Amino acid sequence: ARIPSSLNPQVRRASFADSLRSSRDWAADASVKSVAGALEFCETSSSAVVVTVWPSGLGELDEIHRWFQRAGVRIVHETVVPVESKLSQTLLVMALYAGEEWLETNCWYQEQPLPEGPPPQPLAGAKWKRALCFRGSGHPKVFVLDVSETKSSLWSEKYRVRAELARRSGNPGNSCIHLTDRQTEQVLDPSSRPAASGFGCDASFAFVCARVVLHPASALWLNGEEMESLPLGSPKFREAWQHYVAWLMSPGSTVQ
Description:
It contains twelve helices and four strands; from the N terminus they run H-H-E-H-E-H-H-H-E-H-E-H-H-H-H-H.
């Protein structure tokens, strides 16, 4: 299984813009520039943060906007992420939490069990998280934020906000939103970028998550026929997935 040529790390601005114009969701020139600018911001700035609001939290967007206002963040870009099937929803979860072992082991299941019981292997943790995050209707909504001049820390309020979202929505708070971790200059340095692995939950960075949710080639691939054709967790599935994750992590592959 091969990653599409549109995911080539050497993709340039012209082909990037062309691929955006070919998508019904990003047809207008102004939108092309906004998405390209947001991707470049996340690739280069330690002030970049990506917040994904899962369908389980979409009913509480007012509370999320109040969180942003209290912190004094600047919204650089916002959009929805089209995910058309249960598989593409599962793949989106896997991409935003890439490398975390619970996606395979489902070791946190007992903290938030499902009424229908634990999902089967393979990738039981990813299936479990999909079930928690995609309660209700609608597609995930994404905000790219600039935290360079904030009045308070998004991360220090994260748990209070999650608790409020859980109270208001009836869904687990950490399945209402996904907040990227602090993206330091070291993280952005191509020679020292960490690879997410193990049980750690503190290696989800804006430059990676922005590519997942904003780059049109990512959306096309996550919703595409190639992954639909491969048995989940099979060797060919894992080979294709590793190509995709390598593209997400590779320096400078967003806009050149």
